[in-house]
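Protein modeling request. Please complete all fields; requests missing the sequence field cannot be processed.
Requester role: graduate student
Desired output: 3D structure, token encoding
Chains: 1
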Amino acid sequence: MFKGILIEKDDAGYRASLKEIDEAQLPEGDVRLRVSHSTLNYKDGLAITGKGPVVRRFPMVPGVDLVGTVEESESPDYQVGDSVVLNGWGVGEVHWGGLAQKARLKGEWLVPLPPQFTPRQAMAIGTAGYTAMLCVLALERHGVTPDKGEILVTGAAGGVGGVAVALLSKLGYTVVGVSGRPEESDYIKSLGASEVLPRAEFTSPAKPLAKERWAGAVDVVGSHTLANVCASSRYRGVVTACGLAGGMDFPATVAPFILRGVTLAGIDSVMCPRPERLVAWQRLGTDLDISKLDMISGEIGLAEVIPMAGKLMDGQVRGRVVVDVNA
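Delivered output (327 residues):
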């Protein structure tokens, strides 16, 4: 038996609870892990609270991230005792995830724990930090260098945004953050932002074109915010879109794309091919200031996950939430 968060849906309704789970219930996979740490992400908050149709099979253990030690392996890539990280691949949605003390997964979903990071540090980065790195790689791939101009990061007080600010500033970019929480401005600047703008400047319906400012952007919000970011991007600017905290809609025009040559680059962290994941984690090991991880993250135990999920959905959580599943 092991402890885990279990989401169930039946005639009694939709509910998440902390339970003792029989190891025989673990889903199929060629690697069994003893989990050390997981995280609480926006997608996990949607799943646990039931505020979004994230879970597609029941019962379900949520948690899109985990780090753990191999206990049993039929995969040629991993041996007993190996430390591994998992991000995405539909865990917590269609396959049991990381918010439990045990997991059984496909070896092809795993990457080795980078030696630069402890298990806790790897989860302080987690899907959010790995997604932020994918955004930075996309900006570089499209030729956005520090000398091209300012980079905008929306949701800068959150997990993806906070890591993006830290990464970009260390790489020499001038970073401007956006947040709906003015009380977090000093925190965002401490991560490396030169300026913090209020969210309200980006939430009204966008004009087809606005004054050119951004050479690049990392957007986690979508909807009117993404439309405004595109409209105010500079000629040949690059906007990476990786979230929908403000909505799935995109009420924009084609003007930025056909008149300014703006690129809108979609970032998918869930099904991203393994070679790109390995590059992202390698770059995190060299480009992220590890000393900032304690600023970006806090830690809770499994018993605190469900109430914390409600706070996360209410916008009351700063940065990353690391879960010590054995605490």
